[in-house]
Amino acid sequence: HSATMQSLVGGGPGIARPGAVSLAHRGVLFLDEAPEFHSQTLDALRQPLESGHVVIARSAGVVRFPARFLMVLAANPCPCGRFSQRDALCECPPSAIRRYQARLSGPLLDRVDLRVEIDPVTRAQLTAQGARGESTATVADRVRAARERTAARLTGTPWRTNSEVPGRELRSRFQAVSGAMDEAERNLERGVLTARGIDRVLRVAWTVADLVGHHRPDATDGALALQLRTGVPRGVPMAIGALT
């Protein structure tokens, strides 16, 4: 949590060196207890998340490092961590909760594709015997098939994944089924989504369609993508930036 801006995005005295975002290029950057980082350090992630690279200017010249990574932020809902738990007493005053959650700025969260609230593990779940869900191999096969569909669709383009396709291309060249984004567009009109946000919802809708085998995102895919971005009712969720 004491990581400096330079250690995260690059820089330092003398010759600029790559930071964690460049070391995580084409991989995962996981920041646990994200609100404990300095706000300025977290906001420095906005530019590489948007462009996929870091530009560092020095008197001797300008250095550019690659930085296209999957960002995962984990956060408690409040300083004591019990705000959203059932039958738990949160010791934090409302002002402390607001300050804590505000450390993840709106512009940074606007660049996060998926927001998932994780409930505490129950006693039954903890002591259950046998399988607790799909195996890694099963999920990997589904993701691999989705990647193949994406690659086939993007053949002949400069992009490899859904997250790389510009919003204008998604709206014109790779259009969803008519009506698939109606609810998202209403959220844009109400101010719930920004223009950047609706583009990201559309990208996630394409990923959902690839996972379930649809040729184009339909209303169900669009609704799920919107829910994954805005459907969390309370607290600060764990946020998963989708590099899909």
**Helix and strand succession?**
HHEHHEEEHHEHHHHHHE
Beta-strand percentage? 5-15%
Low-pLDDT runs: 232-244
Alpha-carbon distance between the two ends: 28 Å
What is the residue-mean pLDDT, rounded to a whole number? 87
Radius of gyration: 20 Å
Strand order of the largest sheet: 1-4-6-5
Number of helices: 12
- Helices and strands: which structural class? alpha+beta
Q: What is the 3D form? A: globular
Q: How many strand units?
A: 6
Largest beta sheet, briefly? Answer: 4 strands, mixed
Describe the structure.
- With 244 residues, this protein is α+β, with helices and mostly antiparallel strands.
- The protein has helices at residues 5-9, 20-23, 39-43, 46-51, 94-102, 106-109, 123-127, 136-153, 167-172, 182-189, 195-212, 219-230, and strands at 28-31, 53-58, 61-66, 70-73, 114-116, 238-240.
- The strands form 2 sheets. The protein has a 4-stranded mixed beta sheet. The chain has a two-stranded antiparallel ribbon with strand order 2-3.
- Helix 8 crosses helix 11 (195-212) and helix 11 packs across helix 12.
- The longest helix has 18 residues, at 136-153.
- The radius of gyration is 20 Å and the shape is globular.
- The model is unreliable at 232-244 (pLDDT under 50).
